[in-house]
Design brief:
heterodimer, A: 153 residues, mainly alpha, 8 helices, 0% strand, B: 118 residues, 6 helices
Amino acid sequence: MRVDFTKPAGIQRKQYRDFVDRISPKPNVLVNVIWAFLVGGLVTTIGQGLLTLFLAAGLPVLEAGAMTAVVLIFIAALLTGLGVFDDIAKYAGAGVIVPITGFANSMVAQAMEARNEGLVLGVGARLFTIAGPVLVFGIVVAWFAGLFYFLFR
Amino acid sequence: MIFAMAFVVGGLICAVGQLLMDLTNHKVTPAHILVGFVTAGAALSALGLYQPLVELAGAGALVPLSGFGHILTQGAIRGVERDGLLGVFAGPLEAAAAGITAAIVFGYFFAILFRPKG
């Protein structure tokens, strides 16, 4: 059944919504999740390889972790610039979005699109369209955690 | 062994992100995913629940954005231990400084160097 135009408007609206839900293409959730798991696992395993490498080179744990993040961010930013990141993300979805690679991608992708709006309000501002909220929420939560630790340790 | 755990745990964290997007008909966007995971990671870290995952899975827990939240919170705690109240303010960004600077510099550089496809 589609929309019965003899019914009251509220019922018509509900019928229309049901109709749209039925004919909209459903994402193949299982396939997407398997892709995300495999590619996400691959990205974090590459991260582990870098981490192990930096630790073996004699860096302390925190510094090795930071260098790992720097290298992954460099790779993700470069692949975004080359347009390759989008091709991977089409299949991998959250597999490349959830890792730190997604953070780097969000910055380059937004800024690149805004080139013609200038270097200040275009590139400079758009780098933080998504990275800004990420930093805001992360820092606010960490700040509260630090404050509680200071007061109640 | 740490590589196997990094793969499985990292993969599972990403799978959760994919489910959040797919099961909400993509009303949860990648931006929400990034913000949600950094917030969750920072909060779990404050409760002491994230460090065990890092010890178990290494980069499997550190590379997802929840690991970034963990780094921010641990930075705040280390800051307090070193500098007291000032550390609450300085600690989070000190811990995350390298990653944030890399993202800004490489991001700016590549955004200027390349043109969007199509």
